[in-house]
Amino acid sequence: MYQVKGQKAPAPTRGLKDADEGEDEEEEDDKEEADSVADLIPRNDIGYVLTHLIPRNDIGYVLADLIPRNDIGYVLALLIPRNDIGYVLADLIPRNDIGYVLAYLIPRNDIGYVFADLIPRNDIGYVFADLIPRNDIGYVLSHLIPRNDIGYVLTHLIPRNDIGYVLTDLIPRNDKGYVLAHLIPRNDIGYVLALLIPRNDIGYVLALLIPRNDIGYVLTHLIPRNDIGYVLALLIPHNDIGYVLALLIPHNGIGYVLALLIPHNDIGYVLALLIPRNDIGYVLALLIPRNDIGYVLALLIPHNGIGYVLALLIPHNDIGYVLALLIPRNDIGYVLALLIPRNDIGYVLALLLPRNDIGYVLALLIPRNDIGYVLALLIPHNDIGYVLTLLIPRNDIGYVLTHLIPRNDIGYVLTHLILHIDLYFLDKQHYSK
């Protein structure tokens, strides 16, 4: 029974037998009912507000108001005492579109009042939201959002005095645990998306999606490796060729190796490696696709005495791989060296040697299965043209030195110089055109 407008309500009529048996109980009930008060208060703007003051043995009196709202219906408001923090205000608010929203205003001794809402969603269930004051930065807005596929997602909207609001999500992954996501504003470039992704095999991977005003978004990964440490990976957009993949890979023996996978519109992807060497410095390696022959390996190797040596390993469909070296010489310039495979005899070494006075000399070291290596020189002469010189091993007599010399007046002159261990003689033969 309730007391309306301060008047005690009449007690119900009871039988004599019941009254005799429950006299003590009746006195106790009357005592409790006298403590419960209901008021019906008119409001000019909305109508009548029904107010209850309800005693609770554990916490004290709860004040309940049923408040009419012209737009949504009746709102139930509760003022609930808490022995530890004070009074909690709870509202049950009808919403025409989603149902009832339960809202709390919770006092906290350390930070002030926390606003909390339990919001129904027709598609996913109830969303829990709270607005938490922070003495240093302001209010933090949090949501606990159910997802039918993965579970509950926890989000925070955190104010930062220097950059604005940071959005943080804690996202469950059924297979990997929780992914931590940050959307961070930057005054200079815009919003940066940061992800901390757990991996069962290696630990946490840090991923960043960074806007660049000139080229677009750069995707960055910091990947732990159990054997070598952290690998830094960048996916960099390039306006004219597409995306470049860059890797910074630690190597226990030499330091960090930089790897680039560079798209090329005509030939495909070029792999570039910048490899530190403790003794000579950095070696640049390129793996270049060629549509007709396959991949060419190019190396730019520093040499302390002469500079950089360019090495090329070139596939050839008929004979295999040709090794080409471009070697700087301080005195004469660059020497081109070729190591050419021959299916029948082995490898031929070819050298193109610059000479300051006459031009380039071509030298060939040719293997012969029967006699060994033949040295051939093609030497330019300014007055007569090219002279061919051969140094031919002979198993029986030693080496034969042969010259094929052009003569403007008579043609080519063939000269043999036979070298014995203990005897030299010259056999000259002249041939006309």
Describe the structure.
With 433 residues, this protein is mostly beta strands. Among the domains are: 1-7 and 34-132, no CATH class; 344-433. Helix content is 4%, strand content 70%. The chain is built from two helices and 32 strands. The chain has a 32-stranded mixed beta sheet. The chain is rod-shaped, with a radius of gyration of 46 Å.
Q: What's the topology here?
A:
Elements: E1 3-4, H1 16-21, H2 23-34, E2 37-43, E3 47-56, E4 60-69, E5 73-82, E6 86-95, E7 99-108, E8 112-121, E9 125-134, E10 138-147, E11 151-160, E12 164-173, E13 177-186, E14 190-199, E15 203-212, E16 216-225, E17 229-238, E18 242-251, E19 255-264, E20 268-277, E21 281-290, E22 294-303, E23 307-316, E24 320-329, E25 333-342, E26 346-355, E27 359-368, E28 372-381, E29 385-394, E30 398-407, E31 411-419, E32 424-430
Parallel strand pairs: 1-2
Antiparallel strand pairs: 2-3, 3-4, 4-5, 5-6, 6-7, 7-8, 8-9, 9-10, 10-11, 11-12, 12-13, 13-14, 14-15, 15-16, 16-17, 17-18, 18-19, 19-20, 20-21, 21-22, 22-23, 23-24, 24-25, 25-26, 26-27, 27-28, 28-29, 29-30, 30-31, 31-32
Binned, the helix content reads under 10%
Mean pLDDT: 83
Distance between termini?
140 Å
Structural Rg: 46 Å
Characterize the biggest β-sheet: 32 strands, mixed
Shape: rod-shaped
Number of strands: 32
Query: Into which percentage range does the β-strand content fall?
Result: over 45%
Structural class: mainly beta
Number of helices: 2
Instruction: Report low-confidence residues grouped into runs of 5 or more.
Output: 1-34, 421-433
